[in-house]
Amino acid sequence: MAWFKRVPKPIAPAQKTSRIPEGVWVKCPDCSQALYKKDLDGNLQVCPKCAHHFRLGAADRLAMLFDGPWVEHDRDLASTDPLNFIDTKPYSQRLRTAQEASGLKDAIVCGTGTIDGIETEVAAMEYSFIGGSMGVVVGEKITRAIERGLQYRRPVVVVSCSGGARMMEGTLSLMQMAKVSAALARLDRAGLPFISVLTDPTTGGVTASFAMLGDLNIAEPKALIGFAGPRVIEQTIRQKLPEGFQRAEFLVEHGMVDMIVDRRKLKAAVADALRFMHAPA
Asked: In angstroms, how far is CA 247 from the centroid of its own chain?
């Protein structure tokens, strides 16, 4: 009899809603420890368990280094897409997307402030903006920071975090290597200190120019620092690369980097170095 039959219905799963808001906890990629986001922020984005250094934004870098309020320069400089470059999508579209996501016009923030009482020009690269790549604007802003140092007799600090020169600007981006290096040569002749801080990653044309020209080259722990990628190097020299190749610790052992400093001690290390170099106070 049809009225006696019943078609079984599957039991609907219970609606589970987490009472923990998203983004409250962060998993450390090194030790897999679950970290409370506010504790991580208060520790300068360094894991309190294993000291893994998470990436830090350019504005946070400047706030970390300066004693208090600082003055930003050249905020509105932006690329005009001089080559009308198109790959999978137009470069102008990539720029708009990066600008909306980061709130910046390009991959660097430059400011003037005091580091433990020493007036200093600092430029910090922003990796979230097209991989921190160096285009015309990045090169111009760093050059202007160096020229302000020359004008006002101030030391210069550049914090690098970059995938290298920006291919969408072609030779114009490569010329920034020469332009910034020439400005640093003038700074050197004036007897003013330049400290280069290398963070994860610092690669390509940035490493091949100003990032390695510091009177003092400071790296963060385990930072990836190099020019070409390890796979390209292995294919070129036909040899297996040693363990830890292109990491900060390897480069210190081989004399390419002067010292490794934990981010939590970086400000004090930079201030001590500037005083040793007789930076104007």
From this structure: 15
For the beta carbon of residue 93, count every other beta carbon within 10 angstroms: 11
Six-digit token string for 89: 């999508």
List Cβ neighbours of 156 (8 Å cut-off, separation of 6 or more).
Answer: 120, 121, 122, 123, 145, 146, 149, 187, 192, 193, 194, 195
Backbone angles phi, psi at 45, to 5 degrees: 60, 35
Rg (CA), the chain: 23
39-62 pLDDT, tens digit per residue, is 999 999 999 999 999 999 999 999
Q: Closest Cα to residue 112, out of 83, 164, 155?
A: 155
Kindly give the pairing relationship between strand 216-219 and strand 194-202: parallel
Element (H, E) at 124: strand 118-125
How many whole angstroms separate alpha carbon 176 and alpha carbon 171? 9
Quote the CA–CA distance of 270 and 248 in Å, as a whole number: 17
Q: What is the pTM of this model?
A: 0.90
What span, in angstroms and rounded, lies between the C-alpha atoms of 151 and 108? 21
d(CA 143, CA 156): 11
Q: Which two tokens stand for residue 76?
A: 């509105």
Q: If DSSP codes are grouped into helix, strand and coil, which group holds residue 70? A: coil
* Total count of residues recorded for the chain: 281
